[in-house]
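Why show two proteins at once? Because comparison is the fastest way to build intuition. When a single record is shown, students tend to memorize it. When two are placed side by side, the eye starts asking what differs. So, the first record is below.
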Amino acid sequence: MNELITQINDALWGYVLIAVLVACGLWFTWKTKGVQFRMLGEMLRLLTDSATSGTAKSSGKHISSFQAFAVSVATRVGTGNLAGVATAIAIGGPGAVFWMWVIALLGSATAFVESTLGQLFKQRQKDSFIGGPAYYIFKGLHCKWMAYLFAVLITVTFGLSYNSIQSNTICGAMNEAFGWNPLVVGIALSVMALIIVFGGIHRIANVSAILVPLMAIGYFLLALVIVVMNIELVPHVMKVIVTSAFGLEQGLGGALGATIMTGVKRGLFSNEAGEGSAPNVAATATVSHPVKQGLVQALGVFTDTLLVCSCTAFIILISGLYTVPELNGIALTQSALGAEIGSFGPPFIAVAIFLFAFSSIIGNYYYGEANIRFMTSSSTVLTVYRVCSGGVVVMFGALASLEMVWNVGDLCMALLTACNLVAIVTLGKYVFRLLDDYRSQKRKGIKDPVFHRSQLPEIEKELSCWE
């Protein structure tokens, strides 16, 4: 079974999705006039304004733009940043890091488009907003079967498959650092996850808003110290990344293809640009204009890949341990850090991966919940899903093999991304108009642009939240 899944993944990623992802990234970059570069300052302003405002402290029942950013980064910043980067380097060589950077730079425009659509087509529920690709496919494309297909795919991908990967990595890190039994760690993770996921999006948002900045800043500072301590090796590391990226070290052909494919897969798993995940949490934010959350979520891609993933890559490449065949996944990252800072390394990574991956587990769960609610209002179905996502698959991941959980995750990711890309390419025209409107209001000196559904008369009746 594992070999069959591997063959399907190679066919999908080798011949289809890489070209489509790059093409979409280039298209959205051109149509938005490089929004991910030109409006970087505005992204930072929006994020800091939200983080220091009253809404960021969860006043009332509102989810702030910063909290929505934190939840989405919580799912992005996880095993992909520590174990995923290590796997990419072990399989595809140092050049895989370069292609992770490329897919992040292009993917941030894709992330902007999909998250803006998530905000545009969101709908109100009892104590917050809800939305995502299933909602904009249903309300924007009026394609019910495709909306339900996406809802099923993302529920399986994030709520089930990806959570098994997070659990698998946590248990591997704890076993490597402390010798803890994966079964015991899996039980503890399941209990903790179930407590939080039964609390709903507000509890998830509050937990993420605390964990995400803490873990990202701490890990970045440690990586920065290691890079500074080995500053003389940085030019060599950059040279190895670039030459390997274009097959100049290993020779053109199959090795180059494996490098590109691995870099794109692990980059997408980490930053999720185009997968259709971030729009689910982007829709929960209370903002005055859909573009605001699109910009904030585009910043999340930079934070994930260009910052956190690069930290891991430099630690591994500086150590030189990526050439050891026996090391892969989280074990490679732990060994690399241990080589640089001594016996403190593996335990630090174990704690970091716990924070990274556990926050991803609860964030991934919410993506499934949002889509369960789209398909049915049954509280029984939601309860069963909560038990499966927070309990059953967490335990499965704790006991399954590294190869199995990653292969299943790659297959789910491919199907999910293909479905979402069709939708955002078709609906992107609305985002381009929204961006023009936002820029126009800013040029007029309006500090806080506002959107009203009458500005898009052809879909006005579908935009009930923008009165």
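Second record. Ask yourself what differs from the first in the token line.
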Amino acid sequence: MADPAILNWRRLGPALTSSGQPSEAQLAEIAALGVSEIINLGPHAHVQALPDEAASVTALGMRYTYIPVDFAAPTESDYAAFAAAMGEAQAAGRAVHVHCIVNARVSAFFYRYRRNAIGEAAARAELESVWQPAGVWATFIGDAPVEGADHRYRGRDY
């Protein structure tokens, strides 16, 4: 089966994928790929979020973890919850799909999570294939924010 055509879809490994917000039909495609866990970093209140994603995911037989990350203020506790969820899923051998609204939050979280495992250059390339964070997100990933710089999706609601 081919990978779903979801905004900013990325295959990061045989059991690890990420994307922007999937539709109901795309959740079924993700399940058909063998994914057994969905981690959502996007807020349920976002206009592009599904009406009841938790119910949709569990109806497809997948586990659902919800970690709503405020795009204007990602926190260390958000990251700790993400790292714990990823660690648990990987320890259990579950295939995981992580998404938010456009894959910006997720790519920054994965950059931090994967840079020690796959190396700085590879993790940076994965991140920058989606966006180039600035401001609070530059700080979140450990970069020094550049005065006046903005990330690629400037003016968009993530």
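One difference worth noting in the second protein: The first strand starts at residue 10 and ends at 13.
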